[in-house]
Amino acid sequence: MTSDAVPGTSEPFDPADVTWTPVSRRLIGARLTVTAIWLTPVLLLTVLLAVLVGGAWLWVFPALVVVLGAWIAWVVRRQVGAIAYAERADDLLVRRGIVFRSLVVVPYGRMQYVDVNAGPLARRFGIASVQLHTASPATSASIDGLPPREAARLRDRMASRGEARLAGL
Q1: For residue 91, what are the contacts with CB-CB under 8 A and spacing of at least 6?
Q2: Domain boundaries defined on the chain
Q3: Which of 31, 141, 161, 163 has its CA 20 to 30 A from that of 75?
Q4: How far apart are CA 87 and CA 19, in angstroms?
């Protein structure tokens, strides 16, 4: 029996000797707020339709909206729990996903610039996003749900590591 495993790794989405840093759980509240902003008008319209028309069967639609909201809340909690990043000597790892998992490895020497973003809702929840840009769009990565201080620290660290790696070329 042959093994295609790379020495030193336990599986593709969880390399050995990597300490993962999870994102802030406040990202759950931000994503659920966006969900509520979209689903509340739909719920109100379906309830209004059921009341005005008077058909008992029309109450199925508001119930479906509530079930959809509960399912989204469950999925968002799991999705946010699956997002993490790890800084290594030569690259940054970003993993996400439950069903469709992904692991992005961004070499510091390939980074062109690093953005930190926080819209009004993100600022309200005390979180920010770090966007890493490389020469190839396929290796660019984003980390949502970071506390602002951690986002600024990560931005500065990634920028300095990227410059150091480029200077060594």
Answers
A1: 105, 106, 107, 108
A2: 26-79, 85-167
A3: 141
A4: 8
Output the six-digit token pair for 128. Answer: 């920010």
Q: Are 116 and 152 in contact (CB under 8 A)?
A: yes
Q: 166 in helix, strand or coil? A: helix
Residues 62-105: tens digit of each pLDDT: 999 999 999 999 999 999 999 999 998 888 999 999 899 999 88
Pairing of strands 102-107, 141-146: unpaired
CA pair distance 131, 41, nearest whole angstrom: 32
* DSSP H helical ranges for 59-136: 60-82, 120-125
Give the tens place of pLDDT for each residue, 8-24. 445 777 787 889 999 99
Three-state secondary structure call for residue 110:
helix
3-class state of residue 111 by DSSP: strand
Give the tokens for residue 9.
């790794």
How sure is the predictor about 110, in pLDDT bands with cuts at 50, 70 and 90?
A: confident
Burial call 24-45: b when 16+ CB within 10 Å, e when fewer? bebbbbbbbeebeeeeeeebee
